[in-house]
Design brief:
Blueprint lengths: L1 E3 L11 H7 L7 E11 L4 E11 L4 H15 L16 H22 L6 E7 L6 H9 L5 E6 L2 H12 L8 E5 L13 E8 L7 H9 L14 H4 L4 H16 L3 H4 L2 E6 L3 H12 L4 E7 L5 E7 L6 E5 L4 E2 L8 H18 L6 E6 L2 E9 L6 H9 L1 H6 L7 E8 L2 E8 L11 H13 L1
Parallel strand pairs: 1-13, 4-5, 4-7, 5-6, 7-8
Antiparallel strand pairs: 2-3, 8-10, 9-10, 11-16, 12-16, 13-14, 14-15, 15-16
Helix pairs in contact: 3-4, 8-10, 11-14
Length: 444
């Protein structure tokens, strides 16, 4: 049976070309290129001179202008103004961070536990003057969770508060707290469960380190850093020290019920710090870790950790992506119908011992989840079930808990497998096994 779950993300599809047409003031921030096009009428063909507009991100003013309009247009914040001497956030980078957490960590949990009715919140450490993470989270997050932003800089906190006060609908879900260097993670009401914590920490420990890094970049490369506000950019021991402090504080909070299922996460700007932070998590005895890359003009990395012991862990990402012949998988509807039919046969062969559930999400027609109680991507498991008989009865099967996330796009499929069975060594996933599974769906 194929079902739809209630979980839904509201993901805006940002088009700068659309904004340039809708807001003529942006054309002054563009590089204008003349283009000759053929124009036909009833009698003859003539060349028509037109212009193509390419947005120029190399100037800091242009970055602020387009960011303000994107927030107004796609995130429903009518009264939004950035301080021009503070960080100009890159929307796609920030949105990707939250979307990764929601789709890879929160969404599977919603598929497995659809009846969760507890109050939830998201915590943003160092929200900044732009209030950008709470605004994005308010748009994307399931059921508009409460978002708590912390900020220690007085000027930044005042501007974020102004944005909040000038957009009344945001105040229903977003609140601001004055932060503290001594205690990064704020207190939360006892009846609220923390869904996840996000943070974009200071990358550098000093202005000298910042200038050294910036000097190696291309002159024309867009840069969101404004270096006249030290407090925004620097922290003792840089981002490594900052995230380690977050880890230490999270350990102290881990026994509290409201933080037990929380994903503590931070964006990391220097790649070598990812392994150092993973090692630090190992030293602290935190077994449940999550790493992912955000790839845009500048790569960033997400480091996450969690304390809840009964957790679906990500067993392995298939990388590189499995290339699928369009003859094998034409579209998700076709795949799921055949999958459902094939799994029904396996269920009958096993005398109803094999169990499965196929779930789709409303917000993306190309994503589905398959929950089973056995590793059916392995050929030998499928053949064993298909043969049935005494051999099947002798095997210790149908006692697993596996969630497979399938995402189709173009001619590729991205697969993530999650499992609670950490001790089982037989859950290694190979692309050939997955391809054979898809062919089985298509052939039956």
């Amino acid at each position: 049976m194929i079902e739809f779950c209630s979980y839904k993300l509201d993901v805006p599809h940002i088009s700068v070309k659309h904004l340039i047409k809708k807001y003529p003031s942006l054309q002054g921030n563009c590089i204008k290129t003349p283009v000759r096009r053929h124009q036909e009428n009833d009698r003859h063909i003539r060349l028509q001179l037109e212009y193509e507009y390419t947005y120029d991100y190399t100037k800091s003013k242009n970055q602020y202008d387009i960011t303000e309009i994107i927030v107004k247009e796609y995130f429903n914040v009518d009264n939004y103004q950035l301080l021009r001497d503070r960080l100009c956030p890159r929307i796609n980078n920030r949105m990707a961070y939250i979307l990764i957490l929601e789709s890879l960590l929160i969404e599977p949990d919603r598929i497995l536990n659809p009846q969760q009715d507890e109050k939830e919140c998201i915590i943003d450490i160092g929200t900044g003057s732009s209030l950008i993470y709470p605004i994005i989270a308010n748009k994307l997050s399931y059921k508009n969770s409460l978002i708590i932003g912390t900020e220690i800089n007085e000027v930044s906190l005042n501007n974020a508060s102004t944005i909040l006060n000038n957009n009344f609908h945001l105040k229903q879900n977003i609140s601001l707290i004055r932060g503290s260097k001594d205690k990064l993670i704020p207190s939360v009401d006892s009846d609220i469960k923390v869904k996840y914590l996000i943070c974009n920490p200071p990358f550098y420990s000093s202005k000298e380190e910042l200038l050294s890094k910036e000097s190696s970049k291309s002159i024309n490369k867009p840069n969101e850093l404004i270096i006249n506000e030290d407090e925004l950019l620097y922290e003792d021991n840089g981002e490594l020290g900052f995230v380690k402090k977050l880890i230490d504080e999270s350990i102290d909070l881990s026994t509290q019920y409201k933080f037990k299922r929380c994903w503590f996460t931070s964006q990391v700007g220097i790649h070598k710090h990812v392994e150092e932070l993973n090692s630090y998590l190992d030293q602290k005895g935190i077994p449940y870790k999550f790493n992912e890359t955000i790839k845009f003009n500048t790569s960033r990395w997400i480091v996450g950790w969690r304390f809840e012991p009964f957790i679906f862990r990500i067993q392995k990402y298939i990388s590189p992506l499995i290339l699928c012949d369009n003859k094998i998988i034409k579209k998700l509807d076709h795949l799921l119908l055949n999958l459902d039919e094939y799994f029904s046969k396996l269920r009958k062969k096993s005398h109803d011992r094999f169990e499965y559930r196929i779930s789709r999400v409303y917000h993306n027609k190309n994503i589905c989840y398959i929950r089973t109680n056995e590793y059916v991507w392995l050929r030998r498991i499928r053949r064993l079930i298909e043969r049935g008989g005494e051999e099947l009865e002798k095997q210790n099967l149908f006692n697993k808990d596996v969630l497979i996330r399938v995402y189709l796009f173009n001619d590729k499929v991205d697969i993530n497998v999650l499992t609670t069975d950490i001790a089982d060594k037989d859950v290694t996933i190979h692309s050939n096994s997955m391809n054979s599974l898809f062919k089985s769906f298509d052939e039956n």
